[in-house]
Structure formats: C-alpha cells, structure tokens
Amino acid sequence: MEVYKTVIITGCSGSGKTAMRNATRYALDLGTSENENLSPIKEFVINASIFDPYELFGKINVSTGELKDGLITKILRASNESKHQDDLNLNSHIWIVFDGPMQKEWMEEGIHSIFDKDCAITLYNCDKVLVGPQVKLFFEVDDLSDASPRTIAKSGVIYLSEDIQQWKLTFKAWINKLPFVTIKAKVVQTSYKTREILSQSI
User: Fold this and answer.
1) What highest taxon heads this organism's lineage (predicted)?
2) What's the pTM?
C-alpha cells in the first residue's frame, strides 16, 4: 500500500477479500487514537457496474459546455480542497473501493489516466482531478479477466485462494454470532450448550 496507488484484491466469493480489507483498515485506525493529527480512514465502497461512466466521472452540459461532477470526481475534489477538511480530513487516508468487475467502459474513461506521472483522472473536458497521496483505490474482483495488462502491472495484486476460507471457519463464525437464548426448533437450538457442542465437533 505504501508503494502502489491502486490495489487489486482478487479471489472467488467467500475467500475473505472484504474481511481482509476491513481488518487492515481497523488495524490502521488503531494508530489514529495515539496521534491527534490523524483521523480514521474514510472509505467509500462503490459498485461501479450499476453506474454509467458519466455518473462516476461527470457529464458535459451540451448547452453550457460545463462539466457536472460525478461520484468519483466529487470525492477527489473534496479531498483536494481545504474547505472540505471537516468532512474529509486531509491528514486521513481515503479509500475508494470498487466492488465488482473491472469493466472497460469506466476503467478506460477515467481510471487508466491515474497511472501517468501526474497521477490524475482526466475528465471529458480534458481537465484533470488530482488523486492525492492520501487517496488509495481498491478493486475487489473475482478474477483478472477484465483487467488490462497495464492495470495489473501498475497495481499491487493480492490473490486469495478459495482454500483460505474453508467452510468450517465460516460455520464457526456463524455459530459464534447466535444469541445466548434457547429457541425450540427442529433445525437448531441456539443455546450456549448447543453452540459449544457444534463448535467442538468441527
């Protein structure tokens, strides 16, 4: 994360991609309690596949020629302007997480330009929005079939095998979340004794 602006976390569903990212964010946030100059990480999770590219990176008004910001450009502009320091503290890290396939429609429109030397997103009107040093981009994907060679080469890639998250660990986590009350049911009794027996048997 110190080396790359973008990080790709890939693995099948249930392999622990989101859990690993959340654990990393939690660990980094622990350090903020000891340093008053730092703020907790601001995280924005976006499923880009449900948006049109202009909803992410802005749209030009044909009559006026002005660009109306999209979701991503609004976040980046706020992180670069001191007047928004109360909302997005410039001393804190900002994580923009793209949860879903890396579709060419929106990757080629905006994301690819951040790999240039100026590290900025180029908009439809040729303006550029700086991706500051406090901003990190994460991609959570099932595979790299939609990723271009340039994206892979310029990003840090973390692969999680499906063997890491076994069904027994998932089942134990589910058992531990069951309430401490006895529910008379034919499927399962959620008493502490039942939970203990099930946990010891796997």
Assistant:
1) Eukaryota
2) 0.74
